[in-house]
TrEMBL record:
Residue ranges of domain PNT in the record: 55-85
Organism: Parnassius mnemosyne
Molecular function as annotated in GO: sequence-specific DNA binding
Protein's name in the database: PNT domain-containing protein
SUPFAM superfamilies referenced in this protein's UniProt entry, alphabetically: SAM/Pointed domain
Amino acid sequence: MPTQIRCERVPPADGSWGALDLRLLQEDDLPLDPRTWGRAEVGAWVSRRGGLPERFPMNGKALCLMSRDMFASRVPRAGHQLHQDFRRRLAKALALQEFIEKMSTK
């Protein structure tokens, strides 16, 4: 039977948590929530993943409205991966938002 493992993220014994440093959750220099991205951030994200920024002349909110096939039509070789990365980032932002809302109501 395994022994108890110490977890680095266990709350302190006194119950106090320090301020949450959101930079720990960031993958790069882009804002955590892709819904807040402007055209410049969308262009940077697309170009880092091998796409052409001029095929995405929009902000992050507009990306939310795009389907997987819409991504694929703009980036034929890597559109599905681009869509998957965007949806993963969006899910992470939504989960964080939900967590913060739950913690602020306590």
